[in-house]
Design goal:
The chain is mainly β. It has a single domain, classed as Capsule assembly protein Wzi (Porin). The strands form 5 sheets. The protein has a 17-stranded antiparallel β-sheet. It has a two-stranded antiparallel sheet with strand order 1-9. Helix 2 crosses helix 4 and helix 3 crosses helix 4. The longest helix has 17 residues. The two termini are 30 Å apart.
Length: 502
């Protein structure tokens, strides 16, 4: 977590910025949590061509953004002259209108109050990322548990867990909003009872610029686990974040790039890693040069923390801007790219995502950069199947290389409180997953299945023909995990806050 001094500074900064005089109208509203099924409604409306301006790769969206999307979908639906979309899409528009059409009022709204209980037998596995099984630096400080993780940092024990959670939305004025999401739980794994903030932040608007400080979840990507660099696995980052509140158009010749969304954040990775309170700087860019094509890129820079190589402010700024050389390696850098192509004629989407943690002379030989140092995901979604169009299906494949989550001196890797902040599969793994959702007027029934193989092989880094390469030095047994998960979600509760049971 950010230190008390850093949090105080960020809070004062946001408060001061939002009290400065500013021309233009804006309404700050809280974000809608990423687990809301209304994001799936937006994806469906994009697939059928009723929403054409949204950037899907960067989330969360504010409540006001959902209201804008509902207006856009209704407008395009009323103008449509071809066949009327099936009931599933008409109901999606109505759900968004009902949930987000109310004008925000100053004050606090208890958006949800829920409890959950789990009883599980699902041991976690440690993560190997390097070459020596006896070397503590050959592992990162994370455990992978496909069944009890992928839940945005919520603690579920390998045993029994009982928890309660609330969501309180705050509207503090025209340009300032916030959210508190406390969670309390007790487990039988020796940890006892604990309380934490799933989310807690303030955000405000200066025109189309959103400024956010505190703890929150965000993602970049289109896959089932949200994204490869910022996923649904770990808790929210303690950060300050600058972003556009809604997609914008660039002037002049760049107008042809279509809607553009950018963001930048500075986040703290907490005090439990090998380099306590190391920092993440993440830049995101997404654009839609064609109504059916979305492109995105992410640049992550991991540096600083106690015990990390020292550097001047100028060196750190140059490092962020990829200005070389910087002498001693002071950071780990990750770059990712994503593409989503929409096919309205068949109500489908296909997507590809990749990230790599080392270029290894990319333009001479890309095999290491896009292989052993990378994670790939390829997937497809089809919406509105069946006579009433109530079935959505998806399929997705993943492959992770030897060392995509750690590099150089950061032996804890890209982890937060013992979880990988990026793709939760972890390194040296392959997966195939599929799922189907039945979407009714007020309920969703989902079933998904996954096959995941975790490699036990050991690799050593060598020089082959003068270039870096990973060489397998031990062929050890793999571990295969299979799972099937069913979920029932009801939208009959508080507006904008579906309740789920799995």
């Amino acid at each position: 977590m950010l230190t008390a001094r850093e949090l105080t500074f960020l809070s004062v900064f946001v408060a001061c910025a939002l009290t400065m005089p500013h021309r233009g109208q804006a309404q700050a509203t809280p974000y809608v949590p990423l687990e809301s099924s209304h994001y799936a409604d937006v994806d469906a409306l994009v697939a059928v061509g009723l929403v054409k301006t949204v950037i899907a790769g960067q989330r969360p969206y504010s409540r006001l953004m959902f209201a804008r999307l509902a207006i856009e979908a209704r407008s395009n639906l009323d103008r449509r002259t071809d066949a009327t979309p099936s009931r599933r899409f008409l109901e999606a528009v109505k759900r968004l209108e009902d949930a987000y059409s109310l004008e925000p009022r100053v004050g606090a709204t208890l958006r949800s109050l829920s409890s959950d209980a789990t009883l599980a037998s699902s041991p976690a596995r440690s993560v190997r990322s390097s070459y020596d099984t006896d070397d503590p630096n050959g592992r990162i400080d994370a455990l992978v548990n496909p069944l009890l993780q992928r839940n945005r940092g919520r603690r579920l024990a390998d045993g029994g867990t009982l928890a309660a959670e609330a969501q309180l939305d705050l509207i503090l004025g025209t340009r300032l909003a916030g959210q508190l999401r406390p969670r309390a739980w007790v487990s039988d794994d020796g940890e006892g009872s604990q309380v934490t903030l799933v989310g807690g932040y303030l955000r405000g608007l200066l025109g189309n610029l959103s400024i956010e400080a505190g703890r929150n979840h965000s993602s970049h990507g289109h896959g089932s686990d949200a994204g490869l660099i910022l996923s649904s696995n770990a808790r929210g980052l303690d950060m300050i974040r600058f972003s556009l509140d809604r997609p914008a158009r660039l002037p002049g010749l760049l107008h042809g790039l279509g809607p553009v969304l950018v963001s930048a954040r500075l986040a703290d990775l907490g005090g439990t890693s090998d380099t306590p309170h190391s920092k993440l700087v993440v830049f995101e860019l997404s654009l839609r040069p064609h109504p059916n094509l979305e492109l995105g890129t992410t640049l992550l820079n991991h540096q600083g923390g106690r015990g990390a190589p020292p550097a001047t402010l100028l060196q750190r700024l140059q490092d962020l801007l990829l200005i070389y050389p910087q002498g001693e390696e002071i950071s780990d850098k990750v770059i990712g790219a994503d593409l989503r192509w929409t096919l309205p004629a068949v109500q489908a989407q296909v997507y590809v995502e990749v990230f790599t943690t080392d270029d290894h002379e990319f333009f001479k030989d890309a095999s290491e950069a896009l292989g052993s140092e990378a994670v790939w995901v390829i997937g497809a979604k089809r919406f509105g199947l069946g006579s009433a169009g109530r079935f959505d299906i998806w399929v997705e494949g993943k492959k992770a290389g030897v060392r995509p989550h750690t590099h150089h001196q950061f032996t804890s890797g890209l982890t937060l409180d013992g979880r990988v902040i990026g793709d939760p599969l972890g390194p040296l793994a392959t997966a195939l997953a599929t799922g189907m959702d039945w979407r009714g007027p007020f309920t969703t029934v989902s079933i998904s299945g996954a096959w995941e193989r975790y490699s036990g092989d050991v690799y050593d880094d060598i020089r082959r023909d003068g270039r870096f390469a990973w060489d397998k030095i031990a062929d050890l047994p793999d571990e295969v995990r299979k799972r099937v998960v069913g979920t029932w979600t009801s939208d009959t509760g508080e507006r904008g806050s579906p309740k789920s049971f799995a």
